[in-house]
């Protein structure tokens, strides 16, 4: 007479009942934590180099102004005329009173254009200005 051992039937499957909840939480986390690029740069520029740079911590307060090689001026997603800068930045100051204007100027651009833009920013009362550059190595 042979005796057979009976083994307990153990279920080896991984429970997947909470998988949709986990996927939804991960999706929600990445949607909240991800910052999408807001602006397409339409002007060509190469930043000058500096020996010391300081990083701006709160990027939500920054409004970028690009000045290209051909002295075209871009604010946000559009090319603007120099005369329109005051109105655009005034509206931006009304929305964000602590806005920081960050210049991204081509290293070979005419500084007269930059000075004219600075004058328009003063008239719009946008006096917090930052100049972007690359770290000199």
Automatic annotation (TrEMBL):
Q: What Pfam families does the record point to?
A: ExbD
UniProt key word Membrane: yes
Give the keywords, sorted.
Cell membrane, Membrane, Transmembrane, Transmembrane helix
Q: Which GO terms describe its molecular function?
A: transmembrane transporter activity
Q: Name one GO cellular component term.
A: plasma membrane
Where in the cell does this protein reside?
Cell membrane
Classification via InterPro entries: ExbD (IPR003400)
The answer to keyword Transmembrane helix applying to this record is yes
Q: How does this protein sit in the membrane?
A: Single-pass membrane protein
Name recorded for this polypeptide: Biopolymer transport protein exbd/tolr
């Amino acid at each position: 007479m042979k005796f057979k051992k009976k083994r307990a039937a153990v279920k080896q499957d991984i429970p997947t009942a909470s998988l949709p909840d986990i996927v939804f939480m991960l999706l929600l986390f990445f949607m909240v934590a991800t910052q999408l690029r807001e602006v397409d740069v339409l002007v060509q520029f190469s930043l000058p180099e500096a020996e010391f740079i300081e990083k701006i911590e709160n990027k939500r307060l920054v409004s970028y102004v690009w000045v290209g090689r051909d002295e075209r001026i871009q604010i946000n997603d559009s090319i603007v005329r120099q005369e329109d800068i005051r109105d655009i930045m005034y509206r931006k100051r009304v929305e964000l009173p602590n806005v920081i204007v960050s210049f991204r100027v081509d290293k070979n651009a005419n500084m007269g254009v930059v000075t004219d833009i600075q004058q328009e920013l003063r008239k719009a009362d946008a006096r917090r200005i930052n100049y972007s550059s690359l770290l000199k190595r």
